[in-house]
Task: inverse folding
């Protein structure tokens, strides 16, 4: 069993007046949260990344005394705050992309590429690293085409490792809605990546 | 919320996850400055505050507020209300002011500084001279004898003709008898003192009180035991002296002499007023006193 205090322990300590507890909490989550905010906002909202990131932590500070781990983990709560702030910012600036899943049942767009190399663990070979780096760059481009809400579900589920139920709860969505958004997102991304990867694979 | 288990879903796409992990922004993070701001805000939020103990203690806060308020009020009224600045209303109008009021003349302060050095002028200009001296910052040196006033007049420059000086002196300033500077001084005075028009001498004394008795009393004191009536007179007349004449006047009243016979000045009495004419200088000073005080001091200081 690790001696590391949990996020909830640190949050309670911070509410009790320990600034050091907040610093540990911040060090633990700052980089992934910043990345998440940056990816949810995309290129359109790149000018607001610092603002949303700082505002998210400001809300953590404000809510320190009300914080109670009631079902949701601190990390889920933290990323949920960030996602909502990001959507607010995009909405305010008129850059929010409309959702399209209500248009009809999910239908995959085209055929996803089947020639992926082994994903995990990524090999150490320079060629493989180059491939995945190019794939990552392409994936960021592909994510730009997703509505922010689909992007957020995808990122929470795929990058932050939240279960779909946690992501749905954090985003205030019904489970089925979250599942639908995730499926749309994955289908679009696979198709988008498939159209790119053969050329990238050919480079490597 | 009753949610179905995640195992009804396909697992996360390993390829997409790996691509995410290798994306160019995978190492992105907040700048040091941004982190510094956030951490500083967080520290500030939990830093102990001087009044932090009051949080959640409204009764304590109310008690403290009451104590502070009571202390503030006590401080405001410490020693009672502020003493009146000017003389009593019954004596507010000095002869100089009365005379000017009768003549319908005002003294433009703008003329004060420029004409302070003017040599004494007869007639109308001379009658305005006391006012001129009263509003001028003559008593800048509180203990300076009147002689210094006269000497300043001597060195200030060539004499100005009365015909030139008089119009400036008579120039009204929005109906205010004392001109802008005196108006400013009056504005600074508490409202209570505005009700009766204070004599100009008192106003000038507010700015820098002159005491023509200072040199006389100082000399008498140096010569030997000083009759208490002199200090009484000095105290009662302080701030009320009004210069009356710029030209060398005829001595008035009784001489006040030092032990060696040197005449230090002349002292005279009127109804409710005392006049002192120091031997040095060319001014005569008048101070309004309560009639009872004037009578008592006159009896004590008469030879």
Result:
């Amino acid at each position: 069993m690790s001696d590391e205090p949990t996020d909830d322990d640190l949050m309670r300590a911070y509410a009790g007046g320990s600034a050091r507890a907040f610093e540990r909490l911040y060090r633990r989550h700052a980089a992934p949260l910043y990345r998440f905010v940056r990816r949810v906002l995309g290129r359109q909202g790149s000018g607001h990344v610092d603002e949303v990131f700082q505002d998210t932590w400001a809300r953590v500070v404000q809510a320190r005394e009300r914080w109670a781990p009631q079902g949701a983990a601190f990390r889920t709560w933290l990323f949920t705050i960030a996602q909502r702030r990001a959507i607010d910012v995009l909405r305010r600036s008129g850059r929010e992309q409309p959702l399209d899943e209500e248009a009809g049942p999910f239908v995959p767009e085209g055929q996803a590429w089947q020639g992926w190399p082994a994903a995990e663990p990524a090999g150490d070979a320079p060629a493989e690293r180059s491939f995945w780096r190019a794939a990552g760059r392409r994936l960021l481009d592909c994510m730009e085409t997703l509505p922010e809400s689909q992007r957020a579900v995808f990122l929470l589920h795929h990058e932050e490792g939240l279960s779909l139920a946690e992501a749905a709860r954090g985003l205030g969505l019904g489970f089925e809605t979250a599942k639908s958004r995730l499926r749309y997102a994955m289908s679009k991304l696979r198709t988008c990546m498939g159209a790119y990867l053969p050329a990238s694979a050919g480079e490597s | 919320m009753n949610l179905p288990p995640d195992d009804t879903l396909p697992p996360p796409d390993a390829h997409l996850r790996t691509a995410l992990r290798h994306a160019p922004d995978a190492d992105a993070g907040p700048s040091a400055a941004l982190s510094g701001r956030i951490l500083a805000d967080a520290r500030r939020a939990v830093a102990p505050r001087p009044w932090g103990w009051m949080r959640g203690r409204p009764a304590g806060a109310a008690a403290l507020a009451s104590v502070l308020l009571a202390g503030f009020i006590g401080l405001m009224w410490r020693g009672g209300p502020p003493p009146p600045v000017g003389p009593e209303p019954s004596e507010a109008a000095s002869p100089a002011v009365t005379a000017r009021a009768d003549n319908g003349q005002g003294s433009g302060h703008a003329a004060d500084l420029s004409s302070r050095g003017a040599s004494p002028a007869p007639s109308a200009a001379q009658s305005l001279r006391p006012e001129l001296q009263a509003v001028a910052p003559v008593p800048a040196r509180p203990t300076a004898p009147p002689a210094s006033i006269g000497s300043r007049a001597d060195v200030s420059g060539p004499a100005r003709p009365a015909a030139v000086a008089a119009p400036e002196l008579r120039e009204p300033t929005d109906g205010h008898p004392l001109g802008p500077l005196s108006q400013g001084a009056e504005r600074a005075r508490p409202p209570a003192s505005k009700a009766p028009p204070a004599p100009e001498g008192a106003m000038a004394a507010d700015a820098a009180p002159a005491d023509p008795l200072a040199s006389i009393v100082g000399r008498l004191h140096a010569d030997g035991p000083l009759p208490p009536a002199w200090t009484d007179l000095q105290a009662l007349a302080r701030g009320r002296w009004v210069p009356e004449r710029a030209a060398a006047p005829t001595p008035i009243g009784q001489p006040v002499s030092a032990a060696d016979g040197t005449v230090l000045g002349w002292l005279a009495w009127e109804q409710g007023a005392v006049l002192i004419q120091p031997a040095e200088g060319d001014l005569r000073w008048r101070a309004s006193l309560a009639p009872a005080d004037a009578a008592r001091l006159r009896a004590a200081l008469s030879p």
Notes: The helical segments of chain A are 7-15, 19-41, 49-62, 74-92, 126-143, 148-158, 164-171, 175-203.
